[in-house]
Design goal:
The structure holds two protein chains of two kinds. Chain A is built from four helices and five strands. By secondary structure, chain A is an alpha/beta fold. Chain A has a five-stranded mixed sheet with strand order 2-1-3-5-4. The radius of gyration of chain B is 22 Å and the shape is globular. The chains are: A alpha/beta, B alpha+beta. At the A-B interface, helix 3 of A face helix 4, helix 5 and helix 6 of B.
């Protein structure tokens, strides 16, 4: 059974350009919170989407607005606990000052809005959310999270064949 | 029936905490507490790991003050292998200066976050402004140019951290006995001169001065409100050098009273002889205090306000000028005005920037003598490290067995040191803003948050939690009967 719940599925080939950034968010010391990093590690190891710049970080900071202001397209990858997401989900992000800011938690939409207000520029931004289950202080993804990671990898692998 | 007001979560504070205010039948405050309900277990988690992993693991407590944890742990490891301060030996001059550079950059970064992101919006828009305006995103809409500068400052700080520690976050450069890389001339020049998309060192200092001016302007317009907000006496703690001035990386622990008389001064390796920790059933965060003075009189204030009350002078000109103005304001006595913590923080941003500039111009940072490797016979198996982290005095203490595996770890973080004064702040603010009122406004509720935020507490650090903990909210009436309880996972 196909469990993929893709609300939005961009043509992933657009991310294999030098003006693209693929950005994994998470903490590998917190079990499934490491999904974003695991995805980036896999892309790097397999040399997929090699034209794009890749990076990993624990959380977003306001200065990421400066970072994305130099890119045409950005794909963020993060773990999610959202009940509506069964395995993974793509969403396109629009700029929005959503007032949820703490220094440990700023949304991608707010980063994008900051980019617009500070640099008068809006890159095309997407988020790949991969479903995770456990966030305990422990290294290693859960088996179910690995399954979801592998399903999301397949999409990219198949696209890569067409590049 | 008495009422209990719960502010939960305390927004814009790292970690999870809640405030409860107990009112009697006449809306008079009878008690107010800051509860910390997140529990972390890093001290347990690190046991069994090789000793050299501890600074890498423990810095993951926090995504904000990770360099402080990393360096504090590195100082412990120096002790353990026999080249730390407890042994009378010292790591090389270059290694210490490189660690200091990373440390000052971290302070700049962390203070910029706290000051510009969390506090300046409150100063500009006022405590009664709508919550959606009273944050950095409100600032962004009102003054994008200022936010652009803040972004530039933080980006520059991150570049210093990356150049020194090897990574923007959770770096690995400090190793037992020193550091594993120096600073190249190219990296130094880039930070000093800037480049396309990166501001220069002098611009950093200019922006820091502008930040301080924001406080002066705010203070001028709101002097009475700022000065009277949660003002109470407390002891002040800071690491100091031989002249009695703050040293963020190393020194003796000095505690001064309201007249700036020295109450205690000691080598931090003896902290257990001087400090004890109390506990309360309503908070996971402990309450440290000086044993000689007891729980009530022996608690201390740490962080920017505590440090500026302890230190007599700075070595850098612009920060020294600002410090003199700060000291003059309270006529040589300790400054007990909680919101002046933000003034102190703005001064420390400038001080950090000037210290970084001094170090970037120091040729020792390019030298290759970086690590001391003592013989195995020098192994002590135990170490204590203390640094002045952005939020205040931070202590790590580890012991390891003969195989080199950690058997004991104790962390006393700045937010824990400030636990008692934060609770006093909550009580003071509650008394002033809530007493006698039967309508609780957003501004009044926010006043309590403002008081807590002045300490920029990191509750995640302070409670060392492992995993997720439920939030339990319990309501008691004036007679102490539980009338409701909610559990939120």
């Amino acid at each position: 059974m196909n469990l993929i719940t893709t609300k939005y599925h961009p043509d992933l080939r657009i991310f294999n350009t030098t003006s693209s950034l693929i950005y994994g968010i998470g903490n590998i010391g917190r079990q499934d919170d490491g999904l974003g990093w695991a995805f980036i590690d896999w892309l790097t190891k397999e040399k997929l989407f090699s034209k794009a710049e890749t990076m990993k970080h624990y959380q977003l900071h306001l200065e990421d607005a400066d970072l994305i202001s130099h890119k045409k397209r950005v794909l963020f990858i993060d773990a999610t606990k959202e009940p509506d997401v069964e395995t993974f989900e793509f969403v396109k992000i629009d700029p929005k000052l959503d007032f949820t800011f703490t220094s440990h938690d700023i949304s991608i939409a707010s980063i994008l809005a900051t980019c617009k207000l500070c640099f008068d520029y809006i890159p095309e931004v997407y988020l790949l959310k991969i479903k995770g289950y456990e966030w305990e202080l422990k290294e290693g993804l859960t088996d179910k999270a690995i399954e979801n990671l592998n399903i999301s990898k397949d999409i990219f692998k198949n696209i890569q064949k067409t590049i | 029936m008495g009422k209990k007001i719960i502010i939960d979560p305390v927004t814009r504070v790292e970690g999870h905490g809640k405030v409860t205010v107990h009112l009697d039948d006449n809306n008079k405050v009878i008690d107010a507490k800051l509860h910390v309900v997140e529990f972390r277990g890093f001290e347990k988690f690190v046991q069994g790991h090789p000793y050299w992993e501890a600074p890498m693991l423990l810095q993951r407590i926090c995504g904000i003050c990770f360099v402080s944890h990393h360096l504090c742990g590195a100082k412990v490891l120096d002790d353990m292998i026999g080249v730390g301060y407890s042994t009378g030996k010292h790591i090389t001059v270059s290694a210490e200066k490189l660690r200091r550079l990373g440390h000052y950059a971290q302070q700049l970064q962390s203070h910029v976050t706290a000051y510009f992101y969390l506090i300046v919006p409150e100063m500009l828009f006022g405590m009664n402004a709508p919550p959606e305006q009273r944050n950095v995103l409100g600032l962004l809409e009102a003054n994008p140019e200022m936010v652009k500068r803040v972004v530039a400052l933080r980006k520059w700080g991150q570049e210093v951290i990356k150049a020194v520690l090897g990574k923007k976050m959770h770096g690995i450069s400090s190793v037992p006995g020193g550091v594993n890389q120096n600073l190249s001339v190219e990296a130094r020049d880039r930070l000093l001169n800037g480049e396309e998309g990166l501001i220069s060192m002098d611009e950093v200092i200019d922006y820091a001065q502008d930040g301080l001016k924001l406080f002066y302007d705010f203070h001028k317009k709101n002097r009475e409100e700022v000065d009277s907000f949660a003002e109470f006496e407390a002891l002040n703690l800071s690491l100091v050098d031989e002249k009695g001035n703050v040293d963020y990386y190393h020194g003796k622990m000095r505690i001064v009273d309201n007249d700036k008389n020295i109450v205690e001064e000691f080598d931090y390796h003896e902290y257990l002889d001087f400090f004890s920790e109390g506990t309360e059933e309503w908070s996971y965060m402990k309450f440290p205090f000086l044993k000689r003075l007891g729980r009530e009189k022996g608690s201390v204030r740490v962080g920017p306000l505590g440090r500026l009350n302890v230190t007599k002078a700075y070595t850098t000109p612009l920060a020294q000028e600002a410090l003199e103005r700060f000291h003059h304001y309270t006529k040589g006595k300790s400054n007990n005005k909680t919101l002046h913590t933000n003034w102190a923080r703005a001064i420390e941003i400038l001080h950090s920037a000037e210290l970084i500039k001094e170090l970037l111009n120091d040729v020792d940072l390019q030298k290759d003598s970086l690590i001391l490797m003592p013989p195995k016979t020098d192994w002590t198996g135990e170490g204590i490290g203390v640094v002045e982290a952005p939020r205040g005095t931070l202590l790590h203490h580890y012991k390891a067995n003969k195989e080199g595996n950690i058997t004991f770890a104790n962390l006393v973080v700045a937010t824990t040191q400030n636990n008692t004064v934060m609770n006093r702040t909550v009580r003071s603010v509650a008394d002033k803003y809530l007493n006698g009122n039967d309508i609780i406004t957003e501004g009044m509720m926010n006043a309590i948050e403002v008081g807590i935020r002045a300490y920029d507490p990191c509750l995640s650090c302070a409670t060392h939690a492992v995993g997720q903990m439920p939030l339990v909210v319990t309501i008691f009436d004036a007679n102490g009967n539980k009338i409701d309880e909610q559990i939120k996972n």
